[in-house]
Design a protein that fits this description.
By secondary structure, the chain is an all-alpha fold. It folds into two domains: 182 residues; 177 residues. It is built from 15 helices and no strands. Helix 1 packs antiparallel against helix 2.
Length: 399
């Protein structure tokens, strides 16, 4: 494997990553993924049905797994050196086509989506094969991933020709196969740079939160009045609270835990569970909240309806539950206050309290719940929070 640049024309080479900083090309790649996220939220908002929610989450899950695969890849190789840069641009083009297909993924664009997705995954596997040229353990893991990926892509191609019921089943099976393969076959051979890997996933959370801000803007198309202003302010409060709940302490503890883990199976298992698996419900929760924000801004004085209200409060609950599982996986303790707040949001939905009032009331309930949670944690754990944010954060900085 090449470990330096060459003065000749680009060859089939991959340069090992040396630093932990996320590169500009990786952030550029992520901007294409955000279109896919926007398309998934738009799909839910346009249909307002449970089937629409299921379809959007299936598509988001499939695209998320392709994105997190590139996060693993670029934690091994430098994406801006050798042949990797050109392959990344090719993958971005294919991912963009897949994102454009999202509204009709289960209809007229089903086959085009499957082909674009196959291209994204093929580029990923090809780059990993190149990167594992001199690493037997990594090559063995990549071959296993290639096999499961091929079957998953085949299922999506078959789904393009299936009727509605079998089509959803094939999609679910393809996603289950993709997600389950690393767990079944183990994570021994993979490699990663802890600081880079954690920062990359933190960046995607920021991008998802940015999409929720965009949802506020796209929802307020009828004009700006007092209700819209109030909803916009509350929307920022919710987005800011979601940011706080992740980046204030959780992200610092998680990256330190990943860095302290023994390289190899232990570190890879933590990365797979905490980031590849548990960051998906965080992302999905933010996307669902964005659906509720968009609908609220469009009709401030009207009830949200069952599906948009479930998206808003249910998305908040999913986000908090993912944090509960995230903490349990990393430090094996239960975050009772976040679990309680998630249960409260679910109870509000089950009691129809959040469905019948004007959408502004539902948004206020979510904002109030998150703000009370943050205030409680900042007060109750003030000393521990200060130590984590300063002492532990300094320990997590490389060098």
């Amino acid at each position: 494997m090449s470990t330096g640049t060459s003065s000749h024309l680009p060859r089939l080479t991959a340069v090992l990553r040396e630093g932990e900083q996320v590169t500009s090309l990786e952030l550029f790649f992520d901007l294409v993924f955000v279109l896919a996220l926007t398309q998934c939220t738009a799909l839910i908002a346009a249909t307002e049905t449970w089937e629409g929610v299921l379809k959007a989450l299936l598509v988001l899950g499939v695209l998320w797994w392709s994105w997190t695969g590139y996060a693993w890849l670029t934690s091994v190789v430098d994406p801006e050196e050798g042949s990797v840069r050109l392959a990344m641009f090719a993958a971005m083009a294919a991912l963009l086509v897949a994102a454009l297909c999202v509204p009709r993924t289960f209809g007229s664009d089903a086959l085009l989506f499957a082909c674009a997705y196959a291209t994204v995954r093929a580029a990923h596997i090809a780059l990993f094969m190149l990167a594992s040229r001199d690493d037997v353990a990594l090559r063995r893991s990549v071959v296993g991933l290639a096999a499961s990926t091929a079957v998953g892509v085949g299922l999506l191609v078959a789904a393009a020709f299936a009727s509605r019921g079998p089509q959803l089943g094939l999609w679910g099976l393809a996603l289950l196969l993709d997600v389950g393969a690393p767990f079944v076959f183990g994570a021994d051979g993979w490699k990663l740079v802890p600081g880079h890997f954690a920062e990359r996933h933190g960046a995607i959370i920021i991008i998802a939160l940015g999409e929720s801000i965009v949802a506020i803007g796209t929802g307020a198309r009828a004009g700006v009045d007092g209700g819209v202003v109030a909803a916009a302010v509350l929307g920022i409060v919710v987005a800011g609270a979601l940011w706080w709940l992740y980046f204030d302490v959780v992200a610092i503890v998680a990256v330190r835990r990943l860095s302290k883990a023994t390289p190899g199976r232990e570190r890879n298992d933590i990365a797979r569970d905490s980031y590849s698996y548990l960051h998906f419900p965080m992302l999905a929760g933010i996307a669902l909240v964005a659906v509720g924000l968009k609908k609220t801004l469009a009709h401030v004085g009207h009830p949200l309806g069952t599906v948009p209200a479930a998206a808003m409060l249910g998305g908040g609950a999913v986000y908090l539950l993912a944090h509960v599982a995230f903490r349990w996986r990393n430090i094996h303790t239960l975050n009772r206050q976040r679990l309680l707040c998630a249960a409260l949001l679910i109870l509000l939905l089950l009691a129809d309290i959040a469905v019948k009032p004007p959408s502004l009331v539902t948004l206020s309930a979510l904002a109030a719940t998150l703000c009370v949670l943050i205030a409680y944690e900042a007060t109750r754990f003030a000393e521990l929070r200060d130590r984590i944010r300063h002492q532990l954060a300094r320990e997590s900085v490389p060098g």
